Structure formats: C-alpha cells, structure tokens
Amino acid sequence: QWMRGNQPSPRAEQFQRQWMRGNQPSPTPRPRRRLLSCGSASSGSPSGIDWNARRRKRIMEDLHEACQRRARLAKPPLTPEQNQRYDLKQLESGIERLELLLPGFSINIEQLSALQWADLVTDTNGVAAKLVALKGCYPNLDLVDLLQKYPKVLTLEPQELRENAYKVMELLQGAKNPEAIIQAVPELITPKILASVIITINKWYQLERDPIEVLENDPDIVRRAQEVDTPFEPVYVNDDGSWMLPQLAYRERRSEWQKYIDQTRFKQP
C-alpha cells in the first residue's frame, strides 16, 4: 500500500508526458495545403467555387432524376427517342435556351416540380409561344420578374393564357393601371384568385369601398393577409364553366361567431 501510495497517479503521468512533448524541439512546420486550390476564376467567390455552375448542375440532376423516375413508371414504356429527349445534354441545352428567352430568369425547384421544369426546358418553342401570348395581353408587364415570382403561369397553354387575360381585365376594368396590380401581386394573373381577393376585400370593408381602388392603393394588403393566415373567400366553378361566388351580403349572412370576431377584432359593426 505504501508503494502504491507513492507511485504517481495516471493523471500525473499523463501531465508529465505532455510536458515532455511540449519541451521537445518541434519539427519543421509543414506548409498548409490549400484544399480549394482550383476553381472558376469568373465565379467571383473568394474560395474559387463557381456556385452558379454548382447550382446549375444540381438543377439538371434533379430534373434528370425526375424524368428517369417517370420513365420507369410509364405505361406503356417510353420509346428511346422519348428518353433521349430528357438526357442531361438535352436538359442543359434547354435551360440555356430558356435563359436566352428570359434573361436573368433562374429555375426554382421549390416553385414548380422538377418534372414540370423538365417539360418546360425541353419545349422552349412552346415557352416562347406562351411568352408571346402574355406580352400580347400584358404589353407593359415585366415578364421576367412576374415569372420568377409565379412561374406556374408557364404551365398553361397560350389559348388559356389569353382567356384568363380577358377575364382578369374584365375584373379590373375599373383600375387605372391593371398591369401594375398584377406586377405587384403576380398571383392575381389567375382569374379565380383575383375574384377571390376582390370579394374578400368587399367583405372586409362591408361593401363600403371599391375593392379595385383598395388594391391599386395598397396591393401589399394581399401579402399581409396571407402572412396572418387570413382566409380568402372561395370561388366555385360549375360544370358548365361558370363561376359561383359567395353572396356579397355578408353582414346579413354571417353567423354569430363571425359577427363576434368582426366586432371584437376588426372593430366593425
């Protein structure tokens, strides 16, 4: 026991070894290797990484994977010519053509599915026809800005775009600058969404204000309502294609709980 008590503890031995290593002459330091020594000089990134090229490659891979998944599930199976349409080279070429049609535009996988983007970039002639239809209906719109925020418009056919534009302009006929409203809130280029917003504003103001005037003066009211999850009145489509809108006599039709919310939260009668 006496000998064990006078032996250095394991912790003391560890400290002694570390002290001895610390007092030994250190070897000549080796030069640090640059882990990112190569990269695109045009990327503008301090690390030399071309993030745009990486992003483009990732998008192409996502689109290609979605196309392969569809090909595996297709019944009947796709022909070799159909499969070749969606290979990586064709997708890359299609993305370049899309960017030429819309300078400054970039694909966002979160706004449309990878498969929808693949169909668009492999049919840029169809996209060009849609752009012509949109420009003919809305000559003053910044299409790049609108489509960047709401690319779902590109999934419609040119004839449908023209029909929608006619309905939108009919709904906004009292506006001084209808295209400015659409530019501020791109979703309003869809007639049913626009109609839903108009009748909802009518409900908010109890028919005491012109909803088109409200939109022109404050188009951001739509975004603010979405941020606080304020519901918009629905628009129903009948079998014959006609629309069925909720009655605008909201004050007479509302239930007791709606009346309570209007009076307590919105300070309305």
Structure description:
With 269 residues, the protein is mostly helical. It has a domain at 51-122. The protein is built from 15 helices and two strands. It has helices spanning 2-6, 10-23, 51-73, 80-85, 88-101, 114-121, 124-137, 143-149, 158-171, 178-184, 191-204, 211-217, 221-227, 250-253, 256-264; strands spanning 236-237, 243-244. It has a two-stranded antiparallel sheet. A hairpin with a 5-residue loop joins strand 1 (236-237) and strand 2 (243-244). Helix 3 crosses helix 6 (114-121). The longest helix has 23 residues, at 51-73. The protein is globular. Mean pLDDT is 80; it is low at 1-5 and 31-43. Residues 1-53 are annotated as: Disordered. Residues 36-48 have a biased composition (Low complexity).
Task: Describe this structure in a few short sentences.
The chain is mostly helical. The protein has helices spanning 2-6, 10-23, 51-73, 80-85, 88-101, 114-121, 124-137, 143-149, 158-171, 178-184, 191-204, 211-217, 221-227, 250-253, 256-264, and strands at 236-237, 243-244. Residues 36-48 have a biased composition (Low complexity).
